[in-house]
Amino acid sequence: MECTVKWTGGEGMTFLAETGSGHVVAMDGAPEGGGRNLAPRPMEMMLLGAGGCAAYDVVVILRKSGQEIRGCEARLVAERAPTDPKVFTRIHFQFTVRGRGMKPNLVERAIKLSHDKYCSASAMLAKTAELSLGWELIED
């Protein structure tokens, strides 16, 4: 896996990242740090990656379990250290899973499997952050 991150130059703090699979993502800084608030911050991208990784796992696991999943949302709320390096210190993953006739125990199992075994992003962030999980199941 690889990526390239390039500063766009000028007065701002905008960066364009190109992934090894050929996708481009913009990142920018806050105005107080010289950015223009045009795109997500790099640390927000890390949080997005963890949420995407975990939600992906949950959908795959529930599909393999024969569940009729129709939606999966992961909302992450994070706290960071007050001093540099401002690593994540706490992250709460709140999942909202929608489906028809789904078994709550299988939803809980999928979320725990992602957290304990499959989500590489969560595993890395767990080195500095206390991770917590919550979930709700909505009959669709």
CATH homologous superfamily assignment of the largest domain = K homology (KH) domain
Strand order of the largest sheet: 1-2-3
**Helix and strand composition category:** alpha+beta
The biggest beta sheet is recorded as: 3 strands, antiparallel
CATH class of the largest domain: Alpha Beta
Topology:
Layout: E1 3-7, E2 15-19, E3 24-27, H1 42-64, E4 68-80, E5 88-100, H2 104-118, H3 120-125, E6 130-139
Parallel strand pairs: 5-6
Antiparallel strand pairs: 1-2, 2-3, 4-5
Helix pairs in contact: 1-2
Question: Which properties best describe this structure?
Answer:
2 domains; elongated; 140 residues; three-stranded mixed sheet
Summarize the structure in words.
The structure is a single chain. With 140 residues, the protein is of the alpha+beta class. The chain has two domains: 3-33, no CATH class; 42-139, GMP Synthetase, Chain A, domain 3. 31% of the residues lie in helices and 36% in strands. It has helices at 42-64, 104-118, 120-125, and strands at residues 3-7, 15-19, 24-27, 68-80, 88-100, 130-139. The radius of gyration is 17 Å and the shape is elongated. The termini are far apart. The mean pLDDT is 97. InterPro entries: KH_dom-like_a/b, OsmC/Ohr_fam, OsmC/Ohrsf. Pfam families: OsmC. This is Putative redox protein.
